[in-house]
Amino acid sequence: MNWTGDNFIDDLALHYVDPNNRIELDRFERWDEAQLACGLLRSNGVACELSPMPLPGLPADIILWVHNRDAKLAWALLADADREAFGKNDDAA
After folding, report:
1. pLDDT confidence bin for 88, thresholds 50/70/90
2. What is the 3-state secondary structure (H, E, C) of 10-54?
3. Where in the sequence is the domain holding 20, given as residue range(s)?
4. Which end of the chain is more exposed for a tag (fewer CB within 10 A), N or C?
5. 3 to each of 9, 11, 45, 87, 89, how far by Cα in Å?
6. What pTM value is reported for the model?
7. What is the pLDDT of residues 54-84, one digit of tens each?
8. Total domain count for the chain?
């Protein structure tokens, strides 16, 4: 990837979600799971942002936000990944 060209700018845009135009997509207990989900979305062109990492030892959820306009696609991407990860197939009888 060329970090000095347009790809770098595109990548930065995928890391910011306008707080006035976002929706909470999911909550995670583990930071690595939240990063994995956000990475999947970004790799598919969906901008996402995570809430700050909670302090160790304190109960808190990590929130995954996306732009309102991207919510439907983001939910579908995560649901597809979930089905693949757990071997679920809605078409199976």
Report:
1. low
2. HHHHCCCCCCCCEEEEEEECCHHHHHHHHHHHHHCCCCEEECCCC
3. 6-86
4. C
5. 8, 9, 17, 36, 39
6. 0.77
7. 777 777 899 999 999 999 999 999 999 989 8
8. 1
